[in-house]
Amino acid sequence: MAETLSIPQTANRQAIYDSLIPQIAALVEGEPDLVANLANIAAALKEAFGFFWVGFYLKKDNQLVLGPFQGPIACTRIAFGKGVCGASYTRRETILVPDVEQFPGHIACSSASKSEIVVPVFDRSGNVTMVLDVDSDQLNDFSEVDANGLEQIAQLITNF
């Protein structure tokens, strides 16, 4: 696949995910380098939706460490169970936060972040190996449509 995306010109996020997911699958198919694939996925999500911040935190040495991302500089290390990323990792579930100020223990890497969604990424053995973190500078910017779409993208990562 060429390194370009065809994004529908619509505000309908479901339509965008429906178009984007097969394009991401084609982009990462046959590429064995995890960092390259994560970088392209973060870039594709940022380009398609214009999210404030999109990136990955990878499990390393009993903590989450910043991986490929798009957006302003970010927190480098997050302890398991801390903040939205650490909670998603520990709970092994997607966490959708309409207002980050209302999430107990939220880690404010940027004061511009207003809402967040974090999706755990599993390996083939069912272990969480990283999380996909998406932040918005708008309150209540994420829905179950985003949760479903991002979980499908996380599944693509599992298949590397």
UniProtKB/TrEMBL annotation:
GO terms for molecular function: L-methionine-(R)-S-oxide reductase activity. Pfam families: GAF_2 (PF13185). It comes from the Bacteria. GO terms for cellular component: cytosol. Gene3D superfamilies: 3.30.450.40. Residues 40-158 form the GAF domain. PANTHER family: FREE METHIONINE-R-SULFOXIDE REDUCTASE, GAF/PUTATIVE CYTOSKELETAL PROTEIN. Belongs to the free Met sulfoxide reductase family. This is GAF domain-containing protein. It comes from Spirosoma arboris.
